[in-house]
Write a structure and sequence with these properties.
Number of helices: 10
Shape: globular
Mean pLDDT: 95
Strand order of the largest sheet: 2-10-9-8-5-3-4
Strand content: 15-25%
Number of strands: 14
Structural class: alpha/beta
Radius of gyration: 21 Å
Length: about 375
């Protein structure tokens, strides 16, 4: 990657596929033609080779170290994104149990997960924030978990609405299943409080095409033999994610990103601190601009990853996006279902990009307030 290539890069605020660390992209570029010691591209070597074996094991070990994953959890590298997990979770953990699965709906992705789960068994909306357009999370005392539920499902961070759980809801002995796609590895997480965590990689952890699953071993016993092989967690666990040809390039990049988090960032506690600093810069502008920038999420539920807001009218939003693009601030258009502006400031978004957006927001407000 030349100096000119780097200079031409925009600040990518897209919700995904999203920005990746520059040092990781440069390493990928170096290895793309010929992986050292292989004489072939990372995309060409066999998933059964010793070279890829080492890459695969390294990615698992680094993830286990970053999240302090207990020994009784399996790490799976799958495909199909969260959309496939919306079906695989109830297929494996609900189907045939005679139990009911509880879903906490805090936004669009949790709602999409429920739409697939109802096809596999009995479900219940444990809480639904639709009445206030998903601008908040359930307060303490609003959740009445059924102690006999198959599992409780949450979306830790809703990309579209910009709300994020700060701590895990207490589900007692009921397994907590979490779609962590858009805040995976943004902070430390007490994995032992979850039965399962899954995440598509293209937000914080790699390219599209890779899905990471962390599942407690006892839950694998629920996977029924009559499930198609690829849809069976137990099959993947028994084959160490090699039942089919895995997303080799995705696992390779994921391993580089976990190394970046360990060696360049200094771990997830440091990553959380940096993410809080970045988010604070933008939320301070929202709070200082009543009547101009209107944040979607309530202050106590705001996401560190996706800052969502509107301007006074569609014309100003259109002008905001146009001017931002000219300043290399890209991918800021809100999701079509919500509109407005969405700044996705994932782990790899540099502070320079966030300060650039902050300064532009202040300048744009000062020029256009009252219009």
């Amino acid at each position: 990657m030349t100096t000119n290539d780097v200079a031409e890069r925009v600040f990518n605020f897209s919700a995904g596929p999203a920005v990746m660390p520059l040092s990781v992209l440069q390493q990928v570029q170096r290895d793309l033609l010929s992986l050292p010691g292989c004489g072939a591209s990372i995309m060409e070597i066999s998933h059964r080779s010793k070279q890829f074996d080492a890459i695969h094991l390294d990615a698992q070990q680094r993830l286990r170290a970053l999240l302090s994953i207990p020994d009784n959890y399996k790490i799976l590298f799958l495909q199909g994104g969260s959309r496939l997990q919306f079906s695989m979770v109830p297929m494996n953990l609900l189907r045939g149990t005679g139990l009911t699965a509880d879903y906490i709906l805090t936004g669009s992705w949790g709602s999409n997960a429920l739409k697939e789960a109802v096809k596999e068994g009995q479900t219940r909306k444990l809480w639904d924030g639709k009445a206030t357009n998903y601008d908040r999370l359930p307060a303490e005392g609003e959740l009445q978990v059924n102690p006999g539920a198959a599992y409780v499902h949450i979306t830790s961070n809703e990309t579209i609405e910009g709300v994020q759980f700060v701590t895990e809801p207490d589900t007692g002995d009921v397994p907590l299943v979490c779609d962590s796609s858009s805040d995976f590895l943004c902070r430390p997480v007490p994995v032992s409080r979850y039965g399962m965590i899954y995440a598509c990689a293209q937000k914080n952890a790699g390219p599209s095409g890779l899905t990471v699953v962390i599942i407690r071993e006892d839950l694998l016993e629920r996977s029924r033999d009559e499930l198609p092989g690829y849809l069976n967690y137990r099959v993947h666990a028994e084959n160490d994610s090699m039942w089919n040809t895995p997303c080799t390039i995705g696992i390779y990049v994921f391993g580089l990103i976990t190394r970046w988090l360990q060696e360049e960032i200094g771990g997830l506690a440091k990553m959380k601190q940096l993410n809080e600093e970045k988010a604070k810069l933008l939320y301070e502008v929202l709070d200082a601009s009543p009547g101009f920038y209107q944040g979607h999420a309530r202050p106590d539920c705001r996401s560190l990853m996706n800052v969502t807001f509107r301007l006074p009218n569609p014309d100003l939003e259109k002008a905001f996006l146009s001017e931002a693009s000219k300043r290399r601030l890209d991918g800021l258009k809100g999701h079509r279902s919500v509109g407005g502006i969405r700044a996705s400031i994932y782990n790899a978004m540099p502070m320079e990009g966030v300060t650039g957006l902050r300064d532009f927001m202040v300048e744009f407000r000062d020029r256009n307030a009252g219009k």
